[in-house]
Write a structure and sequence with these properties.
- There is one protein chain.
- This protein is mainly alpha-helical.
- The protein has one domain.
- The protein contains six helices and no strands.
- It is elongated and about 50 Å long.
Length: 120
């Protein structure tokens, strides 16, 4: 689950942050495609957060599998905060989860901003 979780996050990050480059390399893609993709992504993320009571579904699944496999205790902070600390020794400033949540929201908005700029 950790490998899938990590692969999903990397793909999400590359896709959203790469959307300006995609827009330049593929001008045939409508600006509305970028905007609607962002809307779908936001609906999916918000729905999953509501369904899992404010937690990322991948983190919930990962923790469930960790407990079933008795592979150490689960973690309660957001996965980005947890693995940034565990893998890189980095702690986000401020309240846990705030910076990483803002970061995810910015990532999600990049394709919409890309589409909006192409409309100008």
């Amino acid at each position: 689950m950790l490998a899938f979780h990590t692969l999903f996050f990397i793909s999400f990050s590359v896709g959203t942050l790469g959307s300006p480059l995609i827009a330049v390399l593929h001008p045939e893609i409508s600006p509305w495609d970028f905007i609607s993709a962002t809307g779908i992504l936001i609906i999916f993320v918000v729905a999953s957060w509501v369904l899992y009571k404010g937690e990322c579904p991948f983190t919930v699944w990962e923790n469930t599998f960790r407990e079933q496999e008795r592979r150490g205790s689960s973690y309660r902070e957001p996965c980005i905060d947890h693995y940034a600390r565990k893998w890189f020794g980095y702690r986000f400033p401020g309240t846990p989860g705030v910076v990483s949540t803002i970061m995810l929201l910015v990532f999600m908005l990049v394709p919409a901003i890309t589409g909006a700029l192409r409309l100008l």
